[in-house]
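BUG-479 | component: ligand-complex export | severity: low

The export step for manganese (II) ion jobs runs without errors, but we want the raw record kept on the ticket for reference. Input record follows.
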Amino acid sequence: MSINIKDLEFKRESAWYSMTDEQKKDAHDFSVGYIDFLNNAKTERESVNVMVAEAVKNGFVDFRRVMSGELRLEPGMKVYHVNRGKALIMAVIGRESPEKGLNMVGAHIDAPRLDFRPNPLYEDHDIALVKTHYYGGIKKYQWVSVPLAIHGVITKTDGTRIDVKLGEKDDDTVYVINDLLPHLAYDQVEKKASEVISGENLNLVIGSVPYKSDSADKDAPKGVKANILRLLFEKYGITEKDFNFAELEIVPALEAKYVGLDKGMIGGYAQDDRVCAYTAFRALLDIDGIPERTAACYFSDKEEIGSVGNTGARANWLANFILEICQAYVSPEGGKKTDPGVACARSMENTRFLSADVTAALDPTFSDVSEPRNTAYCGMGIAFEKYTGHKGKSGASEASCEFVSYVASVLDSESVPWQLTEMGKLDKGGGGTIAQYMTDLGMDVIDCGTPVLGMHSPYEVTSKADVYWTYRAYRVFLK
Ligand code: MN
Ligand code: MN
């Protein structure tokens, strides 16, 4: 037997080389919908709204109708389940009992941003400003001198709910946090990057024209803040106190677009982790017929601050959903039903879960932070991480080689290009995802997602090929 040594080697190369013209066209067509999603879903609440609206068009029904007993859970049924407007589960019920486990993909739909503080509005030297509180891991200096938009919701004590979206339409005004001019920044530029712009410097300009009362009373209200309050009352019927009942998020007022003369990349805010959320969402919508195992997507909130809270991945909500489907499931063949609690425990043990989150792509400009043999590369397909964590795999939930091999075999069945990677050189830093909270439930879990350049910046960049292959990977895994 002669051995061709070349066959023994494992080499990775850009997926663009092996893609057919048809796949390149599919990748482009897919990216059109993705760019649209990035522009219409800049917050976790908007992501839920956009996905639920699309899901309903595709025959998904509210899972609460199953919980109330109005609808009977049946194989082939498509359900969605919303948690407080900020997290979402979607599922296509399979032929097998949920006790046998689910095929799940889970991404997060929150993203680094700036939030309004409870008492945000003030006036200083005839400029009206908003105090902000940053959310997630940002480089604060990246948020100055870029156009910003305000998205969110105000829930007044009288029960009125006001949705806010300012700065996105062509004729909308935008908002900005000013940086210091270089001429007067001799002291500032000597500071460490983490201190160049402090948290207390992140003050958003919201107005500059003062209110002038017609009243002769010299104590009549006047000034820029008064004018902003007047404008807010006219537009939304809110008073200053109502900021206390608001969740207003400040996000880049930047449109997602193709990057590069060849349109090979996509630039846009919050691709961590909208890219995995959208690809998983589309993969689930595209399931044909009734799958063997129940296929589900989980879109969680609060990942960027540790998956905490009742809408984060550490909450019992996902486990509760699985308990509910075990409770509602009636075998088409009849027969004795497993106790739902036992079925739920078994279901979680048998569930295969892709923790769908982005990783850092090697950046040629900053290649020194990556280990070239084990980093993810832009254009080489979906990146898997057997473990994350930092300093000796701390905080990582390492996937077993059995599970890695299983997932690879599923992707290879459709020739989906994948890369098994780590994020960054050892001792340089690290990160975590929702993976460990899924393993706490007993599931088999591996991290995987699209490599990203400029992660956590106001304008992140992905490869169009990777976005497409991430979608294809989730689609073949779910079915
Ligand atoms: Mn992420
Ligand atoms: Mn992140």
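Assignee comment: Attached the raw record above. The chain has two domains: 9-111+269-478, 113-252.
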